[in-house]
Design goal:
This is Peptidase M10 metallopeptidase domain-containing protein. It comes from Luteolibacter luteus. One of its GO terms (molecular function) is metallopeptidase activity. By secondary structure, the protein is an alpha+beta fold. It has two domains: 284 residues, no CATH class; 65 residues. The strands form eight sheets. It has a five-stranded mixed beta sheet, with helices on one face. A four-stranded mixed beta sheet has the order 1-21-18-19, with no helix packed on it. The N and C termini lie far apart (51 Å). The N terminus is likely disordered.
């Protein structure tokens, strides 16, 4: 039987601006992250999220607004109270950047780490009728659908029920009293101790807002009823997954793994954002459900470029790693010049490795796959508030936003 020549090429979507995650160890007074491999493990995890998130986040730069001030805050790992980040008053956050302050603390037994998005205090006053350009830059970084400041009578208040989230960053603490930390980026430890890669993947997702039950966070809009109501997460999971506000409770139902850190794409795996992940000989990684929740929260993502598997048979078989929220269109050519799709409609992603078998008789052919993001619902644009320089209505400062932190069990 003749064998067909199959060449699979992946067409990348239009490139977005990747995120920069600036890891700062200002809060690591004990030197916990000076242990061999500790910073390298955290960097590998941050690199993953940098490549995943393609939102366009505006800069927070007080020098661009006359008289502007602010101070970033984080949730103290012991008391939970909002604490100013030392020495960071009027900190500049570059565009498309999250700043994460990293440290360690003696956390309660059974807690591997805790993390959450930061807050802020000390926003400088602006004219009541000015539109609060500085305050809104800190509140939402230009993201449509994120929380914003609006005039209400003689004061200014933040809007409710946001559909997007754009923090300046946050804080992450590992439990320094936990024994046998594993900082390898290639192998998990089974029962020896927590794996830094799995823990950091979980905690950075908290900083992105999953489980951070705050009025400024779109996660709260999705989960206020005790279930995650996002359409993509329901599509991925097959139902609305239960949540206690901080973590997911899938009640024994697994999702499908993203193919990173040695995991097979599409393999059955507990969602990353459950309260406690059991010990394993493999790392826990984001699943299709976790990625769907990020999209439902308003984050723009581009999953890692999938590696296509091609079986060279009489009828070539393509296996395409997929993600919910994306469609996959297959194109065929016999000469690399003229391409056509053998599919009337693209294949919808579901977190599995999609399988397509060439229905035509054996012949030399080339194939490529284009990944297309499913059109999301249109988010409301930020309002244009009138500015009256002659009568600013008197100056008023916007309210502080509090930070939060989620405590998580061993991994």
């Amino acid at each position: 039987m003749a064998r067909s020549l199959a060449c699979a090429l992946l067409l990348l979507p239009v490139a977005g601006s990747c995120l920069t995650i600036d890891l700062r160890y200002d809060l690591d007074a004990s030197g916990f992250f000076n242990r061999p491999g500790a910073k390298e493990a955290l960097r590998r995890v941050a690199d993953f999220y940098e490549d995943l998130i393609v939102d366009q986040l505006g800069a927070i730069n007080p020098s661009q607004y006359p008289g502007a001030t602010w101070t970033p805050t984080y949730a103290d790992p012991i008391s939970g109270l909002a604490v100013p980040v030392p020495g960071k008053t009027n900190m500049i956050v570059p565009a498309n950047t999250l700043i994460i302050f990293v440290g360690s603390a003696v956390l309660p037994p059974g807690t591997a780490a805790q993390a959450g998005p930061g807050g802020f205090t000390g926003l400088s006053a602006e004219g009541l009728n000015s539109g609060h350009p500085w305050g809104n830059q800190v509140y939402n970084r230009g993201q449509a659908g994120a929380i914003r400041l609006v005039k209400s009578g003689g004061t200014v208040i933040p809007t409710a029920n946001p559909t997007d989230f754009a923090p300046w960053g946050g804080a992450l603490f590992f439990n320094s009293s936990q024994a046998n930390w594993n900082f390898s980026t290639t192998s998990a430890t089974g029962t020896a101790g927590p794996d830094a890669v799995s823990v950091a993947l979980h905690e950075l997702a908290h900083i992105l807002g999953i489980g951070a039950f705050l009025p400024q966070n779109s996660w709260t809009t999705l989960s206020v009823t005790g279930v995650c109501t996002g359409p993509l997460s329901a599509q991925s999971f097959g139902a609305q997954v239960l949540t206690d506000g901080s973590h997911l409770f899938p009640i024994g139902v697994n999702s499908r793994a993203l193919g990173i850190f040695g995991r097979t794409h599409g393999a059955s795996l507990a969602p990353l954002m459950v309260t406690n992940l059991p010990h394993s000989n493999n790392f826990y990684v984001p699943t299709d459900l976790d990625l769907s929740i990020l999209q439902d929260m308003g984050w723009e993502i581009e999953p890692p470029t999938p590696v296509l598997q091609v079986q060279m048979n009489a009828g070539p078989r393509l296996r395409i790693p997929s993600t919910t929220g994306f469609n996959y269109q297959i194109y065929r050519s016999t000469n690399l010049s003229v391409w056509s799709s053998p599919l009337p409609l693209p294949l919808p992603g579901d977190g599995s490795r999609l399988t397509w078998i060439e229905p035509q008789s054996a012949s030399a052919a080339f194939y490529r796959v284009a990944r297309q993001k499913v059109q999301a619902s249109v988010r409301p644009a930020l309002p244009s508030l009138e500015s009256n320089a002659a009568d600013d209505g008197g100056k008023i400062a916007a309210p502080d936003l509090v930070p939060t932190s989620c405590r998580c069990g061993g991994h």
